[in-house]
Amino acid sequence: MSRVRVLTLNAALGPLDYRVPYGMSAEPGSIVLVPLGPRQLAGVVWEPERMPSDAEVGDNRLRNLVGVYDLPPIADPLRRLIEWTADYYLAPPAAVLRMALASASALDDRRTAIEYRATGVVPDRLTPQRAQALERIGERQGLVRELATIADVSDGVIRGLVKIGAIEAVEVSVDDPYPLPDPEHAPPHLSEAQTAVANVLVNDVDARVFAPTLLDGVTGSGKTEVYFEAVAQALRQGGQTLVLLPEIALTEPFLRRFEGRFGHTPVAWHSGLRQSQRRRAWRAIASGEAKVTVGARSALFLPYRDLQLIVVDEAHETSFKQEDGVHYHARDVAVMRARFEGCPVVLASATPAIETRQQVTLGNYRELKLPGRYGVAQMPEIAAIDLTEDRPERGHWLAPTLVTAIEETLSRGEQALLFLNRRGYAPLTLCRHCGHRFQCPNCTAWMVEHRLLARLQCHHCGHVMAPPKKCPECGEEDSLVACGPGVERIADEVAELFPEARRAIVTSDTLWSPAKAAEFVGRMEAGDIDIVVGTQLVTKGYHFPNLTLVGVVDADLGLQGGDLRAAERSFQQIMQVAGRAGRGTKPGRVLVQTHDPSAPVIAALIAADVEGFYEAETESRRDAGAPPFGRLAAIIVSSEDQREATDVAQRIGKAAPKVEGMEVFGPAPAPLAMLRGRHRMRLLVHARRALDVQDVIRSWLGSQEWPRSVRVAVDVDPYSFV
Ligand SMILES: [Zn+2]
Ligand SMILES: [Zn+2]
After folding, report:
1. How confident is the model at residue 519 (pLDDT cuts 50, 70, 90)?
2. Separation of CA 472 and ligand 1 centre (Å)
3. Residue range 684-694, pLDDT digits in tens
4. 48, 183, 235, 684: which is deepest, by most CB within 10 A?
5. Is 480 in contact with 432 (CB distance < 8 Å)?
6. Closest to 161 in 3D by CA, of 211, 117, 97, 193
7. 422 C-alpha vs ligand 1 centroid, how far in Å?
């Protein structure tokens, strides 16, 4: 009799054993359908010795596999990656496997899907909801549920529109082949230095060996053109490439650059895909037909058939760290995947993270440097504006020096960018009469005013409310005042100062889809925008030759809160946004507004002393035993009941093992003491580099029990300290 061990998609269960019926064959990696209670669900056959089961079932009690999918098996390197990720990040292996199988629909082998789209027939009388739905859906199509989400209405509203003929069903093919990018389509003209670096990468791809490389060069130095040559080599060899980007908003400009070089766009993978697109992409990736995939971090776990190159672009970005579910860091997992696949991995960055620099210092990663900016462009000059002397007018946020600089820029017909990493109009609303502050009922956070949407919103849980006419505390009318600026408020100030100038606000509220991002890029390039006001979304990836002035509205903002990477992150962010200025033939200028020009971060920026900044930062981390010189892990205990969260956290704290080289801090209320209605307590584990902290935590928490209403999440190598 033949039995197999199957890891199912149910994260609450361990691996289960099944019988392979006569005539069926299932190897490790095979994607199978298994019975579980009255239901059936998908899973992957695993080597039993690598996936121990704590409930061995006798042969006579085994149930039969239902079937084996006609899909390529999950290959050995990906199975090893899933094991490694589960082990390192203390996550259930099934939760990691889910990211590889991506969605149950990917397994569905029907060749068509039914989607819905507007017919253009608009009935005479429409309810406000139906009107809203039709307006928001526009040209888009998708499943009923997808359209309902886009339109922010119930499924019933969409079905009602189908019934009256305003929306129709269409059949779409999900196995149309993807066009093949052509490595010889438009080879670039590289400088001598670029060619030398590109050749090293091309040789790595050719040799098919694990080779981690930091590709380091200032913004505008041509990193993309250089790693494209490695992509071209993988294409020539018939292999697959994965390019990871930190933000979905960057996908669109990337696709266009890629198309310019290779004649066709690559396969895109991100959360904005429709189910049918997701299915088509997954199957093409698994069959090896999708040669180049560009995607957000979730693309990392897809079942590439013949992966020959991984690129992590903007590798320093903290958005590569997943903050819920499996708390993995895509940059680090990308390196592990490359190791298991035996292929090169390129981490590209103008401002590499200290963790990455340390790997170079240790000799684990090779560093390739690109000198200067490509072509005639020069790095912009950075100067500080001391807000204690050069003060903005009352109730305003832009200093006279910055206003003058914008004026000069506009008069030359050039574009300006104002950067403030804060969405909305104002971060805090209070009552001028009684001092009442609007706080989210579910979180320890202020409600942020969004004037464009006419509402107050919590940025942590999404709770919204209409801005009240009178104070809910004292009842005073028209007493509410906005405190501090968000990008919308800066845009208002710009409108007041430069009424003729054409403005754009760029945040995740306005650029929420690749199409919106593409529209923005188009308007910038056509010169239809004079002044951009944006959050970190505009700091990277874009290339606008006519953008010559960057104003950083509040350089002190990122330093508040003070987690261990605050200074590094501020430095990277301002360097990145500064890199948007003067990318063409015209020189760029960067003005940084601050209350403390002598702060080390600001001083280093102005002196353009990148190495000095990193050295000082690295030393202080070393002194503190902070990452990458020591290790951290956060244990977050949460419950809707504050008492319960506190009790369990204290019990876990008391049970902390005494281990040489490890300290446990807390429990203490997490900085975000309440989030989405749950009270949160935090323990922080600090350990020596060499200590197997996962192993310690695994047996420590394994010995503890807590009620189902309590959640205990472990974040290994945490990036967020809220
Ligand atoms: Zn009041
Ligand atoms: Zn909230």
Report:
1. confident
2. 7
3. 999 998 999 99
4. 235
5. yes
6. 117
7. 25
- Residues 6+ away with beta carbon under 8 Å from 265: 255, 256, 258, 259
For ligand 1, the distance from its centroid to the CA atom of residue 476, given in whole angstroms, is: 6
Residue pLDDT, tens place only, 300-318: 999 999 999 999 999 999 8
Amino acid of residue 512: W
Asked if residue 667 has a cis previous peptide bond (ω within 30° of 0), the answer is yes
Cα separation of the two ends of the chain:
53
Nearest alpha carbon to residue 30 among 64, 2, 68, 65: 68
CB neighbours of residue 716 within 10 Å: 19
Distance from C-alpha of 546 to C-alpha of 527, rounded to nearest angstrom? 8
pTM above 0.90, yes or no: no
Contact between 43 and 6 under an 8 Å Cβ cutoff? The reply is yes
Distance of CA 679 to the CA centre of its chain: 26
Which helix (H) or strand (E) is 525 found in, with range?
helix 514-525
Asked if 32 and 65 count as a contact pair (C-beta separation under 8 A), the reply is yes
CA dist list (Å): 127 to 138, 153, 154, 401, 617: 17, 12, 13, 52, 59
Give the lowest-confidence range in 146-150, 278-282, 504-508, 707-711. Answer: 146-150
Interval between CA 438 and ligand 2 midpoint (Å): 11
Cα 670 to middle of ligand 1, angstroms: 29
Query: How many Å lie between the centroid of ligand 1 and the Cα of residue 479?
Result: 7
Least confident of 269-273, 369-373, 459-463, 661-665: 369-373
Pairwise CA distance, residues 228 & 3, whole Å: 46
Least confident of 74-83, 367-376, 650-659: 367-376
- Picking from 662, 424, 447, 385, the residue whose alpha carbon sits closest to that of residue 533 is 424
Among the bound ligands, the one closest to the CA of 461: 2
Tokens of 641: 């009941």
Average pLDDT over residues 444-466: 90
Q: How far apart are CA 74 and CA 61, in angstroms?
A: 27
* Per-residue confidence (pLDDT) for residue 136, from 0 to 100: 83
Other C-beta atoms within 10 Å of 255: how many? 18
Hey, CA dihedral for 80, 86, 92, 97, is it positive or negative? negative
